[in-house]
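Continuing the batch. This is chain 6 of the set; chains 1 through 5 are on the previous pages. Same settings as before, nothing changed between runs. Recording input and output for traceability.
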Amino acid sequence: MDTVTEAGRYLTFTLNGEAYALDIFHVTEILEYRNLTVVPMMPDFIRGVINLRGRAVPVIDIAMRFSRGSTTIGRRTSIIIVHIKDPALAEIAGLDGDDKGAAESQDIGILVDSASKVVTLSPEDIEPAPAFGAGIRADYISGMARRHDDFLILLDISHVLSISDMVRLSDITQQAGSDPITQQAGSDQSPPPEGGGTPPGPGSP
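Output for chain 6:
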């Protein structure tokens, strides 16, 4: 496996009692759990959509994506909003020009048991992804990091969702955004609660 994981800042979170981390570069904000609008006839791991400041954002349950059952909603359940950019999205959708630029990226909500904190990992902290034994597909993992006598599983979010999944999520966003029921549900939601917000990005003090 040729995945290269760079040192830097990572957002840690828990899922089914295990510790994971995402490169902070992809994370735009963290929200406390809120009610989702269910979109019919979607894969089970797509739990629904939320209205985020007028934009429909699909929310996936990565525990289900990893075939580990559904995430139980609790007091600390969070939705991590990540931004993914991939030119292949526009190519598959057959778009060009201004439409192509808009289609190359997608905001996605990731349902987790709890979001923890941002940590800085040095090259010495990171080990290559194992070929087996982590309990999830090897191509979902970009590396392993030792923290406090345990390991963090560093996820490669661009591989957790395949390109075809990304196109499906983009379709859901468009469908939900044009659905008056979804728009009404979003307008009734309160502003993001305290405890959410945008974690510091790369280069922040």
